[in-house]
Write a structure and sequence with these properties.
The protein has 162 residues and is of the alpha/beta class. The protein has a domain at 70-157: 3-Layer(aba) Sandwich (Rossmann fold), CATH 3.40.50. It contains 9 helices and 5 strands. Strands 2-1-3-4-5 form a 5-stranded parallel β-sheet, with helices on both faces. It is globular, with a radius of gyration of 16 Å.
Length: 162
């Protein structure tokens, strides 16, 4: 019993929000952030929580580690961002050892394209393979395919989503 109470005191954020800013920051993600905060949740949102001059990848890894839940907004260009893929790898590592709940939102993308690394995601990973180590790209692909297998929300832009 002592370990569960000590682990809960380590948690700093209710939710870590992972998204590609250029894709969703000014629309969907902003609304999601407001809704979560409106429910009284403490959300790690990079623009609000990062300290000036702080090493970005280290700060994000720490924030992920001290969050109860990660919500990943998977948009068409999510996989083109190395920082998004680094976040995703950290998130899925914690998920695999049952230290975090992961909730994917498939935002205008097909969940099977995430799981199978198809469509725009295939091109993004092909581009990474020309610039990054084989091991790093393999790690990212594994994490990406795993999040594609999870239950989540599919927001396809139809009239019922609005």
């Amino acid at each position: 019993m002592a370990s569960s109470s000590s682990s809960s005191t380590l948690m700093k954020y209710h939710v870590f929000l992972s998204f590609r800013g250029e894709d969703t920051r000014l629309n969907f993600t902003t609304h999601l952030l407001q809704a979560l905060k409106g429910e009284g949740l403490d959300v790690f949102f990079d623009e609000e929580k990062l300290e000036r001059g702080e090493q970005l990848s280290d700060a994000l890894s720490r924030a992920i580690a001290v969050s109860n839940i990660s919500i990943i907004v998977l948009s068409a260009d999510y996989a083109s961002s190395k920082s998004c893929l680094l976040e995703l790898s950290d998130i899925m590592e914690l998920y695999s050892v049952k230290q975090q709940i992961v909730l994917p939102i498939f935002y205008h993308v097909n969940p099977s394209d995430v799981e199978n690394i198809d469509g725009s995601f295939k091109k993004s990973f092909d581009d990474h393979q020309t610039r990054c180590s084989v091991d790093k790209v393999k790690q990212w692909k594994t994490a990406f395919a795993e999040v594609g297998k999870l239950e989540g929300w599919h927001i396809d832009g139809s009239i019922s989503d609005r």
